[in-house]
Amino acid sequence: MSVSSVNVRRRVLLQGACAMPCLGMFSSSRAQTVTEEFQQLVQGLATGSPEAVARDERYWRQVARFYEKTRGIVNLEHGYWGKMATPVLNHYLEATRRINRQNAFYARKGYETDLAQSVQRTAEALGVGEDEIVLTRNASESILNLIRQYRGLKPGDVVLYADVDYPAFKRDMAWMGTARGVKPVMLTLPSRATQQQILDAYLQAFEQYPRARLLLLTHVSNQHGLVVPVREIVAAARKRGIDVFCDNAQSWGLLDYTMDELDVDFAVFNLHKWIGSPVGVGALYIRRSALHKIAPFPGVSDPEENHIHNRAHIATSNFAAMISVPAALDFHQAIGGKNKQARLNYLRSLWMNEAESLERIELLGGADEASRTGMGSFRIRGKTTIADAQALQARIEKEFGVFTVIRKGLASGACVRVTPQVFNTPDEIEQLLAALKAINRKPA
Ligand SMILES: Cc1ncc(COP(=O)(O)O)c(C=O)c1O
To answer: Could you say which of 17, 194, 202, 215 would form a disulfide bridge with 160 (CB–CB 3.0 to 4.6 Å)?
Structure first.
């Protein structure tokens, strides 16, 4: 890459502008300066433990400068998809222009190399082999590859999932009942639970359903941010011959981990949530030694059974999004996964710790710190219908200027979910807390 193209890129990143840089023919246009620029801004700040960094407001003010924020509303709904930091956004826009200009010439001759780099960086960040990861368009696509192509079921077997799982994935598991002649069983977890209580609930289900052969397990629930003890549940499942499909769509980047910590054989991810890639990037992980349990994508042949990319077929997809993964990972890693997790947990603790003493407010999800993330949910005690949650969400938005979202998948009823991002401030969390206090005084 020529010096001038690097300089052009640097200018684009620094100005946040959308100029058209003159890059090499197939340059993957990796934003070399993402990390450098970040380091310059935070120089001298935040050198302690993640918990100390989490409380260093000067550091997070600098981080916030890398994001364009909505005006006129405090947005505390970042569980849907992750906003790109401006260097990632600029990289993506530039890649979109370049690929559009080069069209099939790039797609047919340059894309494969760039895509391989995105796979390599994803695998490296997760601590797995490149032959164990395939990039997909989202976690929903990845889970369908697992569910439809799983070979390990006989009619009459039981497949387990839980109320805290992602609603569409619950539907997919239930679909196996008619499609595969198995018995789908949905477990109900306590609306608030510790790691031990969650583990006990799964252990009890394993005892109750000896014909269980497959479990959908959600690392972090999209309902209330609950973290389940994946490693322990997987170990218990494995002893009983139960395979586990782990849904890491919400957890990767919200929590900092590598796959050896979870020890799962199958997992699905989103990079467009907490890793901060453009929308349209997910991943599928299949442990090398478990590949034979997932059939190739319908119609694809893989006689040697050794190619994970034969398990998915993403067809024509957003080239620019796929090749922006290294830039997104650069930015994520520049902040530091552990720092990000600690900051998001800290922001959650700022409202949840105080809300704990509000007698009319019911908090949901993790009952101990290990079961909690930056995401959390609540409702007015006894008000569990969807209409109740909608009214509560609308009141918080209209009267207090704070945007949240309702979730309606829990067996215990609907709730309002709160999900700050790294650029939200303690003052904004205070605005939510003021709303909760007012609602506690006057619930209707
Ligand atoms: C826990 C969980 N699983 C799966 C998904 C599905 O993600 P996508 O729509 O990107 O496939 C989500 C999305 O919010 C989620 O939170």
So the answer is: 215
